């Protein structure tokens, strides 16, 4: 059992945390032809836009209400109204998702009231999907913004379906923000191999997977449609991935009567065994032979990787669900989580196999890694300087990952994803060992003054 603590620092020196609004905006990007709208200053939106462009290396649809100092003091109704009208007229979206920011939350803008006035004033918005989520960036973090946004989309967009017949072949999947588009593609393949038809909300696998669209679109170029979201109550099963999705699962159950199954982890052997068996039970089909083979490959990879990851002292910083998922698996591989830092409280943190979990920043992570002899750093790209100062291998995970390609296609779920994670981390450790510990001709000590003779052993 880990002890969750909060440091008493007056500021974040090297931030690990990202804000709620951009977490909510990313969730809206998993809906087809949607436009995320941040209600705040232009700088709030610009920051999120640059972060996502650098991470996904794709065009990112995001707009702002462009609140000025005067508008912030007097109230933002006119800015919200004009932004919605401009987006609706110029980009022809199927949904506009609105996230608040710190400046408008501090003022206390009643955005729900604004939306009601806009619907009364402009008949074209009477039934148009306008989804507003309160996501002040002066509290909580990226994962919280995603969690609230998915739950709100369920509450607003899914049609009530209590007591209606259910399609036993349909499955609603509510994925957490710690899963990449590549993870969602892998999950879709696994679920479909059991003869089931999955619907992902949100579905980043078809909107931010790096494909080139046939035509330019100012809105999202893929994702689940608003029409499909409305029919999710017809599915007979709901699967939530990550503890953060419990709220959305409960909202779905309340509105449709469909109970949900929560999988807090999908990285590792036992979590995937449970997931595969669940799919076999709800589909009433045996496990396909390909997954029996993939399971054997993972077990073999774990045996091979244990020689390099076992005993390794890991320092990891990530959002709570990602920290719990990958950190727990590294513990199962024999590694020791000597430093664990996260961004926001979560019920899973106390069950992390570490002595302490700190809600802090990357400075805290670096300090603890140095004090406790950490020899592998795991976090997003902003940890690269800390790894260089500590002279230890650095494995990039989470958002943002701007100094490597393919961030959206990294896998950590399923037997294959877990296997690949083992190989990538073990290879990183092996490469570091070779670079710092293997003798080379330049490090040979010669036993004769004339420079000839056998090499004497050296220590490192």
From TrEMBL:
GO terms (BP aspect): protein-containing complex assembly
Job description of the protein: This protein may play a role in the biosynthesis of the prosthetic group of nitrogenase (FeMo cofactor).
SUPFAM superfamilies attached to this UniProt entry: Helical backbone' metal receptor
Pfam families: Oxidored_nitro
Keywords: Nitrogen fixation
One MF annotation (Gene Ontology) recorded for this entry: nitrogenase activity
Pathway: Cofactor biosynthesis; Fe-Mo cofactor biosynthesis
Descriptive protein name: Nitrogenase iron-molybdenum cofactor biosynthesis protein NifN
Keyword set includes rRNA processing: no
Signal peptide start-end: none
Coiled coil residues, start to end: none
Domain Nitrogenase/oxidoreductase component: 19-429
Family per record: Belongs to the NifD/NifK/NifE/NifN family.
